[in-house]
Fold this protein.
Amino acid sequence: MSARRRLAARFRVAGIESAAVDARWLVEAALKDLPEDLHVLDRATLDRLDDLAARRLAGEPVWRIVGEREFWGLPFKLSPETLEPRPDSETIVEAALEALDPRRDEPLAILDLGTGTGCLLIALLSEYGGARGIGIDMSGQACATARGNAERNGVAARASFRKGNWTEGLDEAFDLVVSNPPYIPAGDIAGLSREVREHDPRLALDGGQDGLDAYRALARGLPGVLSPRGIVVLEIGAGQADDVIAIMNLAGFVHQGGRHDLGGHLRALIFTP
Ligand code: GLN
């Protein structure tokens, strides 16, 4: 308790907004292998805690230090080539579950483009016991991380992960396609917080000059992989709804509505062929 309070105070002085929560997670990480009734921290544990604190003070996000982050109530391991799953992205899962609810007992086929940790696909497979899915990522390391996460969350038998470029080389039709693509305009990346800028992989953030490159690629590829009754749910960044809807309309998709995240931002857009 006192280690936690002292650490929180140090974080606060350093201007870390989530000081108390970060301190709690790091103390928990440092204590992980110790018996629960331990009251006095030994030297080795204090040193371990000091190392973790130094990393946080140097701008590393707490979840990177801990090595995993929760999404949809499930644990997800992170690696250098995966984006940290964000609570905002749970909006994509909610939107997909709502849109597909009438078909929830069917053996649905799900595609997750730019799967990263696999969080979107794995959350959906955890809800739909009869569904199976494929996660694609440009990073082989991300695919390996996602595979591990699928195993850890008990859905590995229904999930496969493949290194690839969006829909290239896929020749089946999916009932649901989800994607949280990179959508930050390249010029805005330098202005993001140090935690994001220096620790989330650039490939997972950079949406090209206007932030919309990935949506153009998706709009080109999606018609070839969506079943006639299929739906697409895309995550978008702030202010991107009109542009993304226009890009998808041009490719023949019909906008079916959207869903706001807990911060009140329109976060998920739903489309049908
Ligand atoms: N699909 C993953 C997520 O939602 C990765 C997204 C990305 O790397 N842009 O976290």
